[in-house]
Write a structure and sequence with these properties.
eight-stranded antiparallel β-sheet; two-stranded antiparallel sheet
């Protein structure tokens, strides 16, 4: 058993082509720790978002801070603290912060999940 304390994990700013705006991550469960899934805490500055992408596994987002948007090809939803978003494998989507709010969530995916960026 391992107790994970996000307050003890440093935030790492993410500079990836997938992101628009300022995004930071705290790795909660890494490939070295678990055999089944990965988990991170992602922090989005107001207005920051991911570009359209897919994952090769289901994705679960547990909203922990602020207000954000989740958009798929079929719908757009505003989400806030305490809400949980399930994104099925292969669904084209993006997520990010509202323009007037920071946004954070716990991201849970399969250990071997691959993210494929669709939007340039």
């Amino acid at each position: 058993m391992k107790i994970i304390r996000p307050s003890e994990i440093p935030k790492e700013v993410q500079h990836r082509p997938l992101f628009i705006g300022e995004v930071a991550m705290q790795a909660l469960i890494t490939q070295e720790m678990g055999e089944t899934f990965l988990s991170s805490l992602r922090h989005w500055a107001p207005g920051a978002r991911a570009k359209f992408h897919t994952h090769s596994s289901d994705q679960l987002l547990i909203i922990t801070e602020g207000r954000g948007m989740i958009t798929s090809e079929k719908e757009t939803a505003a989400v806030g603290i305490g809400e949980i978003v399930f994104i099925p494998v292969g669904e084209k989507h993006w997520h990010g912060a509202m323009k007037d709010s920071s946004f954070a969530y716990i991201d849970i995916r399969a250990r071997d999940s691959i993210t494929t960026q669709i939007e340039d």
